[in-house]
Amino acid sequence: MKVKSLFIKREKDGNIERIEEGFFKREKGLVGDINGIGGDRQVSIATDKVRKYIEEGKSKGICVKRFYENITIEGLNIEELSIGQKVIIGETIQEITHMGKRCFPECNLFISNNPCPLFKEVLFTRVLKDGIVKVGDKVGIMNYNNTDDGVR
């Protein structure tokens, strides 16, 4: 697994920018991002499947216009992960706090019982160890005994 892309939104009504690297601060998130303010959803992570879905722009769902992830991970299989697991991304260690993104009740896809990939292919983390994350960085999953079991 590796970091495929990074995104930041600096202002509430601002544009979403693609960046090559970012500093992720412990217990805050991506420095300079509007969501980098702490809490249990400090960093949003999506699979490359979600990124492709968003970039194609064919969906009529609300999230495609509203959602952006801070980190896109190529080769990420969310079904193999669980809340509380720790991931090594670049220089950082992050803990998974939420899996999946809630649908908006007013979304046409939700109303038609046809949720988009964001429902299952997104997760949120909090930063345990700060550091720089760059496009191309490897991503590893830590065992529960806090040892790195390598990149999968």
UniProtKB/TrEMBL annotation:
Signal peptide: none annotated. It comes from [Clostridium] ultunense Esp. Residues 38-139 form the MOSC domain. InterPro entries: MoCF_Sase_C (IPR005302), MOSC_domain (IPR052716), Pyrv_Knase-like_insert_dom_sf (IPR011037). It comes from the Bacteria. One of its GO terms (molecular function) is molybdenum ion binding. This is Putative MOSC domain protein. Pfam families: MOSC (PF03473).
